[in-house]
Design a protein that fits this description.
The longest helix is centred in the N-terminal third of the chain and has 22 residues, at 89-110. The protein is of the alpha/beta class. It has two domains: 13-78, Chemotaxis Receptor Methyltransferase Cher, domain 1 (Orthogonal Bundle); 89-297, Rossmann fold. The chain starts with 12 loop residues before the first helix and ends in a 5-residue tail after the last strand. The radius of gyration is 22 Å and the shape is globular. The chain has helices at 13-27, 36-50, 55-62, 68-78, 89-110, 126-145, 174-182, 187-190, 195-201, 213-216, 249-261, and strands at 114-120, 164-171, 184-186, 202-205, 208-211, 219-223, 235-240, 263-271, 284-289, 292-297. It has a seven-stranded mixed beta sheet, sandwiched between helices. Bound molecules: S-adenosylmethionine (SAM). S-adenosylmethionine is lined by residues 27-29, 79-83, 87, 121-123, 127, 171-173, 176, 224-227, 241-243, 246, 272.
Length: 302
């Protein structure tokens, strides 16, 4: 054994390039100079844990069949999972008061009572659960004002019959997906949730708040890497907020093309406050109201 065994292994320029390219290939995350020290720190930690001695060995392991688990762990360590309930209220108001209202009217008029939403990069679940709460509230109001045909029976679900809501919430990080599926939040995480919402959609369990089962049933959590070609189809809305900012422009463009292909005609994409589709595509029109922004799929005339 060498006496330098405890010293951190050196990360050469070429090792760093190899690892950066691998991470980009695998999940689209791009680490520019401002984020290199974060990347280096996480790589050092994972190398130490894996006890592979050098970054080149570590890279070889990640690209081997046996290295799949370590690769997933590394990607988990590189993601930023910051999120909150009712994040970006202005945008959510635009969604609920205008875009969703219009869609409910159009859907009810055509006898289509299904809503499909994809929360892409859902982290610990606050985003998809926020959407589920907002949609339940909106559907309750909508059904009182525009009662559906009487042939539909009332149900005990949170949704007024005959509406069906499917929210797919996906992420690349198994750890956050487990927390999201559990749906239990502490007082600090609950700060943006008002008391009417807490009473309707949460159970108080000790000093935490647990999402009630009927709300949970509306959200399906799944592992999904946005880098892959497959995308869940026929969405009315895609929320992909504060995810694209970690991708480079080429990857952002590819992602926006995929979103276009998997949105229903007239569907909308919502991105984060610091993100934009401008300059990435001409297939979406920006919708902006009271500081909230969304992007509507433009239908191409054939
Ligand atoms: C900053 S959080 C945003 C959470 C939520 N959308 C919000 O705005 O509050 C970004 C999430 O995107 C996920 N993510 C990053 N790259 C991804 C990829 N290639 N595929 C799927 N999810 C990814 C991360 O794991 C992380 O949970």
């Amino acid at each position: 054994m060498s006496s330098t065994a405890a010293a951190p292994a050196p990360l050469t320029e070429s090792d760093l390039k190899l690892l950066q390219a691998l991470i980009y290939r695998e999940c689209g995350m791009h680490f520019d100079e401002r984020r290199t020290s974060f990347l280096t720190d996480r790589l050092q930690r994972r190398l130490k844990e894996s006890q592979l001695g050098s970054f080149y060995n570590y890279y070889r392991h990640l690209t081997s069949e046996q290295g799949k688990e370590e690769l997933a762990l590394l990607l988990e360590n590189l993601t930023v999972n910051e999120t909150s309930f009712f994040r970006n209220r202005a945008q959510l108001d635009l969604f609920q008061k205008h875009i969703l209202q219009d869609l409910l009217q159009r859907k009810a008029a055509s006898g289509d009572y299904t809503l499909r939403i994809w929360s892409a990069g859902c982290s610990t679940g606050q985003e998809p659960y926020t959407l589920a709460m907002m949609i339940c509230d909106s559907l309750a109001h909508f059904s009182l004002r525009f009662p559906p045909p009487t042939r539909f029976l009332a149900t005990r679900s949170l949704l007024p019959s005959p509406w069906r809501v499917e929210i797919l919430a996906s992420d690349i990080n198994y750890k956050v997906l487990r927390a999201a599926q559990e749906g239990s939040y502490n007082e600090a995480q609950m700060a943006p949730v008002d008391y009417a919402c807490r009473l309707r959609y949460f159970d108080k369990v000790g000093d935490r708040y647990a999402i009630r089962a009927p709300l949970k049933e509306l959200v399906h959590f799944d592992f999904f890497n946005l880098k892959t070609e497959f995308v869940p189809q026929r969405n009315d809305f895609i929320f992909c907020r504060n995810v694209m900012m970690y991708f480079d422009q080429a990857e952002q463009k590819r992602l926006v093309e995929k979103f276009y292909s998997c949105l229903n005609p007239g569907g909308h994409v919502f991105v984060g406050h610091a993100e934009s589709l401008l300059g990435l595509t001409s297939k979406f029109a920006m919708v902006h109201r009271d500081s909230g922004t969304a992007y509507r799929r433009i239908e191409v005339e054939l």
